[in-house]
Each structure stands twice: as C-alpha cells, then as structure tokens.
Q: What sequence folds into this?
C-alpha cells in the first residue's frame, strides 16, 4: 500500500452551502458539572475535517480527546457551538434522530473490538445493515471483506481470530453502511506492533482508495503518522495542527503540549 503524502491538510471550518467537510465543529464548548464545580472539557473548538482525509487527534490525558470525539460523533451534546455532519446540524436533532444518524452515517471502531462472539465474521460485518433494515449490497460486502483481508474467514467466529483480525472485522463493520465518517478511538491500543500496522494501513487504504473520512484518537505518534494530519488538544482547546506528520515531530509536539 503506498502512502500519498500530498493530501489536503485539515482546514478551519467555514460555512458553505455544500460542505466540503465530512464533519465540522464550530466553536464547540462542553462543560461538565458536578455539584458546584464545572469542568470545561472543550473550549470553543473550531475545526473541519475535509471529506476523504485521515486525521489523528492527540493530546495529554484530560485534554478533551474523548469529549471531542463524542461530540463530533453525536454521542454527546456540546454545551454551546455547532457540530455539522455533512450538511446536517446535530444540535437540533432529537435523541432518536441522533441514534439513527449515528447508526446510518457514522462508523465506530473502538479499542475493544466489540464484536458479537456468537456471530460469524460476515454476520458481524453486516449487523449494522440488519439493524437499520437495509439490504446488503453483496458486491460491496465482498469489496470491504477483501479490503480488510478477511475474504477467506467469513464463516469464522471472533474467538477464532487474532486481535488484529478482530479489529479488521470491526473496521469492515464500520465501513459497511458507507458512513460519512469513521470514528476510531485508540483502535490500535490493544494490538501488537505488527497488527497495529496492518490496522493503520487498512485505515489509510480506506481513505485513499474508498474515499472514506477517518477521525482517530490515539496517543501513539507512530499511529498518528499514518494520518494526513494531526490535531492537537490541550486543556480543551485546539493547540495546533501538524500536516504530513512523522513520528518524531509528533512526539516532540506532544512533549511541548505539556507546557502549553
Ligand atoms: P481525554 O480523552 O483527553 O483524556 P476527556 O475528554 O476524557 O479527555 O476529559 C476532558 C476533561 O473533562 C477532564 O478534565 C475530565 O476529567 C473531564 N470529564 C470528561 N468526562 C466527564 C464527565 N462525564 N463528567 C465530568 N467530567 C468529565
């Protein structure tokens, strides 16, 4: 798999009739209250993720990465600001609409693969379609299973697969609805170096060859170097971007974020 390093960097969000962004956040803040105390987990974050790009989100522990991902994916509502998925503004949507929108238009990949042990690879991958009462496009299913390197294992159960293979099933499951964005939260956190690399190359492949948009939270500079760009968070605020990241640069920026 080749890695074309000439892709578009993440740009600041702007309002257009037809959004070039798969997802954008417009001055998004999120406060958590516990008793008298309020924690500002996100503070006026404005950023857009162009369609067909791969972005890593990084920052120290507590910098707001999970909150950021949860708001971007409609799992959590901002206290103020707007999140726009394609051309759909999320804040005015009901819980039911958000649930449907997450199911149909966002693909999720988690550190723990979250596969159903009683289902085969193929059944796990097509589950989101069955839940949405949508027909499986067999040609696209083949394409996805081939892309993730599991064409030979469709009848196996997750327990018969390695961790890396299970995560590739999870990626296939995230892709099968042709979502506008795939959101990955530490997707290689539980994997060894070799399996991590395969999963990251797979994410790179789906961006380059299938036009997917991928947003990935990671603490690993090597994982981040597979992305087109890295967005850094510190204390809930955007703390810079790095296009065409290489691991050493990423590690150095992360070290300095501690002082931000
Ligand atoms: P990260 O993923 O970078 O570690 P988080 O988004 O989890 O950061 O957290 C950002 C800040 O918000 C932290 O100070 C955290 O303690 C706080 N926070 C996150 N979720 C909650 C919550 N549900 N209730 C209260 N505070 C929270």
A:
């Amino acid at each position: 798999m080749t890695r074309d390093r000439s892709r578009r960097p993440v740009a600041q969000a702007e309002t257009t009739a037809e959004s070039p962004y798969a997802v954008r956040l417009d001055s998004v803040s999120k406060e958590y209250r516990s008793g008298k105390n309020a924690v500002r987990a996100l503070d006026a974050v404005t950023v857009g993720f162009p369609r067909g790009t791969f972005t890593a989100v990084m920052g120290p522990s507590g910098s707001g990465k999970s909150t950021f991902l949860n708001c971007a994916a409609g799992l959590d509502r901002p206290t103020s600001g707007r999140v726009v998925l394609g051309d759909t503004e999320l804040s005015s949507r009901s819980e039911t609409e958000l649930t449907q929108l997450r199911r149909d238009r966002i693909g999720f990949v988690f550190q723990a693969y979250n596969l159903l042990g009683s289902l085969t690879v193929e059944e796990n991958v097509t589950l989101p379609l069955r839940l949405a009462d949508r027909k499986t496009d067999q040609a696209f299913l083949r394409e996805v299973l081939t892309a993730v390197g599991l064409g030979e294992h469709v009848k196996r159960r997750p327990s018969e697969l390695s961790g890396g293979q299970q995560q590739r099933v999870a990626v296939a499951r995230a892709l099968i609805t042709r979502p506008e964005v795939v959101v990955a939260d530490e997707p290689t956190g539980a994997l060894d170096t070799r399996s991590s690399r395969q999963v990251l190359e797979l994410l790179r492949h789906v961006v380059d060859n299938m036009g997917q948009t991928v947003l990935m939270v990671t603490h690993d500079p090597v994982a981040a170097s597979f992305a087109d760009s890295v967005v850094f968070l510190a204390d809930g605020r955007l703390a810079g971007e790095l296009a065409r990241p290489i691991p050493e640069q990423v590690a150095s920026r992360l070290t300095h974020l501690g002082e931000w």
The two ends are 36 Å apart (CA to CA). The helical segments are 65-72, 95-105, 121-131, 138-147, 163-175, 193-210, 221-224, 247-257. The CA atoms of residues 230 and 242 lie 5 Å apart. The chain has eight helices and ten strands.
